[in-house]
């Protein structure tokens, strides 16, 4: 079994496996600092590149990426433009992750976010 990432105390039991995979994806592209904060977990390089929030009632993880939503084909129930909508954390693109398949779809967006940072 993989060791649990930093900030795992914030992670609801039902989302731990999915979060471990997301954490791996967000830290796979080089040096990323993981900062567990009160309401979310921040992923930082020189600037915040992503914020992760847990929604255990919906068995989902919301990841906010520092990526221009105009450069992404938005998909109902998966990605959402958050410009002008208040939310915790950093990032204009919201991704709703509820399964390994969602994480697979998210991988190219995570990579783009990392490359742009």
Automatic annotation (TrEMBL):
It holds the Pfam family DUF5655. Residues 13-115 form the DUF5655 domain. This is DUF5655 domain-containing protein. It comes from Streptomyces incanus.
């Amino acid at each position: 079994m993989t060791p649990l990432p930093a900030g795992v105390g914030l992670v609801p039991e039902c989302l731990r496996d999915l979060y471990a995979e997301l954490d791996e994806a967000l830290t796979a592209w080089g040096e990323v600092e993981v900062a567990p904060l009160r309401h979310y977990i921040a992923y930082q390089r020189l600037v915040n590149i992503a914020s992760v929030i847990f929604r255990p009632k919906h068995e989902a993880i919301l990841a906010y990426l520092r990526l221009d939503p105009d450069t992404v084909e938005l998909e109902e129930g998966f990605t959402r433009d958050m410009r002008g909508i208040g939310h915790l954390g950093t990032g204009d693109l919201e991704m709703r992750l509820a399964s390994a398949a969602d994480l697979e779809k998210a991988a190219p967006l995570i990579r783009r976010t990392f490359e742009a940072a």
